[in-house]
Structures are given as structure tokens and as C-alpha cells.
Design brief:
With about 260 residues, this protein is of the alpha/beta class. It folds into two domains: about 180 residues, P-loop containing nucleotide triphosphate hydrolases (Rossmann fold, 3-Layer(aba) Sandwich), CATH 3.40.50; about 70 residues, no CATH class. Helix content is about 35%, strand content about 25%. The protein has eight helices and nine strands. The strands form two sheets. The chain has a six-stranded mixed beta sheet with strand order 5-6-7-3-8-9, with helices on both faces. The protein has a three-stranded antiparallel beta sheet with strand order 2-1-4. Helix 5 links the parallel strand 6 and strand 7. Helix 2 crosses helix 3, helix 2 packs parallel to helix 4 and helix 6 crosses helix 8. The longest helix has 18 residues. It is globular and about 50 Å long. The chain starts with 5 loop residues before the first strand and ends with a helix. Bound molecules: adenosine-5'-diphosphate and magnesium ion (MG). GO terms for molecular function: ATP binding; ATP hydrolysis activity. This is Taurine transport system ATP-binding protein. Keywords: ATP-binding, Nucleotide-binding, Transport. It comes from Actinokineospora terrae. InterPro entries: AAA+_ATPase (IPR003593), ABC_transporter-like_ATP-bd (IPR003439), ABC_transporter-like_CS (IPR017871), ABC_transporter_ATP-bind (IPR050166), P-loop_NTPase (IPR027417).
Length: about 260
């Protein structure tokens, strides 16, 4: 067995509040391998965002250990993060936002223009570099946020309900693009959502969290093909429907 991208060992987290400790997550164990697209599904308040913050190193867990490529995660390094809101810098152009991310990633100034073009191409925004962030649609803004997260070429991409604020058609298009991020088998994605449909479409593996504090209720491989099949075929297949039913039942039972 090679080195895990992420390893959580007995991880739990409580928030300290005036009213006492609020248990939000765990204890849980989880290992994510390179090439996996893990979607964590759970009801609202089950600890999904807490889970991602702990994995990214932004939140130090109250208990247990997190290993990212065998080390303690350094916030802002090693992983790219995409949130529900794009959080772009409004005083910079689309290209400027990517350029800043490249600078933070340590890319030499002379290489940044070319890399900016490549990243915008990768997310289907080839010509939008000079535009202002408020001149583009919500879906395009979220694509910029994805390009920015990819700037440092992270081995691991963390996504926190990144499409929840988008309309259904835009959401499906972005899902189709994001699904192929793990075609490069050295990379991994951990994506959290409360949408069962989104989970079944995207995941190579689905982890269902219990209600707060989130523990692992179900850990399920997704045997759907990842290449050579259209999104419509996939969403219309009997295998997709069966899996959707199984995961929906699990989510309903933990939320009850
Ligand atoms: N900063 C905080 N202080 C106190 N409680 C918090 C804080 N952040 C989250 N929580 C609580 O922890 C639980 C899990 O939150 P969160 O990880 O945001 O869930 P999710 O992303 O699944 O909706 C919730 O019950 C929430 O109220
Ligand atoms: Mg959340």
C-alpha cells in the first residue's frame, strides 16, 4: 500500500462555546488514496465543513490525528480549497485573481501569464481573463474559484458544497467538468455535499455522515464508469438509480 493522500485517525472535533463544548465531528477514521474522488454526504449541521477544515489544517482537531501525505497539514499549502461562495477579489480581474494564486503558490512572475491562460482554459473560461469578477455569472465565478484552487497543482482538492448556490443546469455542467479531476491518478478530491444526486454522480466512493457529531454511517465504493460514458447516459442508468436509492435511504435514516 502506497502513501495515503489523507489519513484521519480517531479524529474528533468540538467547538468551545459559552454554553460548553459542542461536539461537531467524530470520532472517525478515514483513509483517502490517490485517484479517489470521495464525496462526503450528510445532512446540514452534520459536521461536513468542520471535517474539511480539519483536513485542510485550518482547524486543529480536539482529538486524534490528521496526516496529509504523511505529514501534519499546513494551512494553505498542499491542498486547494473551493467553498460554496467563490470569494474572489473584486478589485482584481479574473486573470488577476488567478495570478495572485500563482504568486502565493510560488510560481515565478515570468511564468504566471502562461499558467493563467492554461488554468482558465482548463475550467472553460479561455477568454475571460481581462473581465471583472462582477461582470461574469455565478457559475463562471465558481469556475474561477476552481482554477484558483488548482493554481498550486495540489495533490488534494477539497470542495465544500461548491455548487449549492448555482442553478440546476449550471450545477450539472460544473459537475461534469469536476468529475474528471481525478483522471490524473496521483490526485484526489474530497467533496462534501448534502445532495445525494451530486454525490452519486461525482464520487468514486461515498461516505455518509451521521447527524452531529458526524461519524461514518456508510462507506461505499461507486462502481460507475468514469470515462467513456456521457453524463446523460450515466444519470439515466439503472446502476445510477440503484445507488441513488441506497444512499438516499442511508441519508434519511441518519437524519431521522
Ligand atoms: N464556530 C462554531 N462554534 C460553535 N459551533 C459550531 C461552529 N461551527 C460549527 N458549529 C456547529 O457544529 C456543527 C457542525 O457544523 P458544520 O461543520 O458547519 O456542519 P455542515 O457543514 O455539515 O452543515 C453544527 O451543529 C454547528 O452548529
Ligand atoms: Mg457546511
Amino acid at each position: 500500500m502506497g502513501e495515503a493522500l489523507v489519513e484521519l485517525i480517531g479524529v474528533e472535533h468540538s467547538y468551545r462555546t459559552k454554553g460548553g463544548a459542542v461536539p461537531a465531528l467524530g470520532p472517525l477514521d478515514l483513509r483517502v488514496e490517490p485517484g479517489e474522488f470521495v464525496v462526503v454526504v450528510g445532512p446540514s449541521g452534520s459536521g461536513k465543513s468542520t471535517f474539511l477544515r480539519v483536513v485542510s489544517g485550518f482547524e486543529h482537531p480536539s482529538g486524534g490525528a490528521v496526516r496529509l501525505l504523511g505529514r501534519t497539514p499546513v494551512p494553505g499549502r498542499d491542498v486547494g480549497v473551493v467553498f460554496q461562495q467563490p470569494r474572489l477579489f473584486p478589485w482584481q480581474t479574473v486573470g488577476g485573481n488567478i495570478g495572485t494564486a500563482l504568486r502565493w503558490a510560488g510560481v515565478a512572475r515570468a511564468d504566471r501569464p502562461q499558467r493563467t491562460v492554461e488554468l482558465l482554459d482548463q475550467v472553460g473560461l479561455g477568454s475571460l481573463g481581462p473581465r471583472r469578477t462582477w461582470e461574469i455569472s455565478g457559475g463562471q465565478q465558481q469556475r474561477v474559484a476552481i482554477a484558483r484552487a488548482l493554481a498550486a497543482q495540489p495533490r488534494l482538492l477539497l470542495m465544500d458544497e461548491p455548487f449549492a448556490a448555482l442553478d440546476a443546469m449550471t450545477r450539472e455542467r460544473l459537475q461534469e467538468d469536476v468529475r474528471s479531476l481525478t483522471d490524473d491518478a496521483t490526485r484526489g478530491v474530497v467533496f462534501v455535499t448534502h445532495s445525494v444526486d451530486e454525490a452519486v454522480f461525482l464520487a468514486s466512493r461515498i461516505v455518509v455522515l451521521t447527524d452531529r457529531p458526524g461519524r461514518i454511517a456508510l462507506d461505499l465504493p461507486v462502481p460507475l464508469p468514469r470515462t467513456g460514458v456521457s453524463a446523460d447516459e450515466l444519470r439515466g442508468s439503472a446502476e445510477y438509480a440503484a445507488l441513488r436509492g441506497e444512499v438516499a435511504t442511508a441519508v434519511r435514516s441518519v437524519a431521522a
